[in-house]
Structure of Enoyl-CoA hydratase-related protein:
Amino acid sequence: MSDDLTTLHDDGVLEIPVSLETGGNALDRGAILAGTDALHRVMRGNLKARAVLLTGKGKNFCAGGNVSDFASADDRREFLRGLAHDLNTFLSALYATQLPTVAAVNGWAAGAGMSIALHADFAVGGQTTRLRPAYPGIGLSPDGGMSWLLPRIVGLGRARTILMRDEALDAETALDLGLLSEIAEDDSLVSSRARELAAELSNGPTGAYAAIRHLLMTSSSNTLAEQLTAEAESIADLAVTGEGVEGVDAFLAKRIPDFPSARS
């Protein structure tokens, strides 16, 4: 399945671009809306995706919002509020699908582009990948969940420094901080490596991936006792799913589990 922007590959990977070559790889509102629609179709069961791949269609993943559009808006406050709402709806849908997500972070991921990259379970960068908040440079504050996710990944003190000093982080620094999960050997390999990883996740136990993500995201607000209970309930629930049964049966039979078939 493919429309003008999103593509569902045969292996169950739903590819969603967040920026296009036009507009300097700025966040593309039409692409975000198309991505949201595709994710909603996944949630309704009309699109059989098992993993999500976020990409940029040009030399950069996403250079942030289109500042020219900000400046030309009749009402800048309402324009930015509406754009932030569309981005928030997209990110909320991304989480609601409970699908593992990979970002192919080639070139720059700035502003909203950096925010989106932080939401991916795995972010693959290249040798020239750069991440930058970019908001203070134009006198604005973060959106797209950056102020929530960044301190959870790097710690409050480091997040404050990155944001307020508007630091441009190279690939190695981003990898060390956990903002990238790996760096491809060559920039030309970023897209193919991210695609390969997304396919690998699509063939894996997506129910377990969703549970892992949920447990990690809620752990900071739980007591140890609450987290132990949540883990016990989660593993018990998964044990009777198709994937859970297939995983255990395959282990005992000493064969590779077929998780995609177990979900159908």
Notes: The two ends are 18 Å apart (CA to CA).
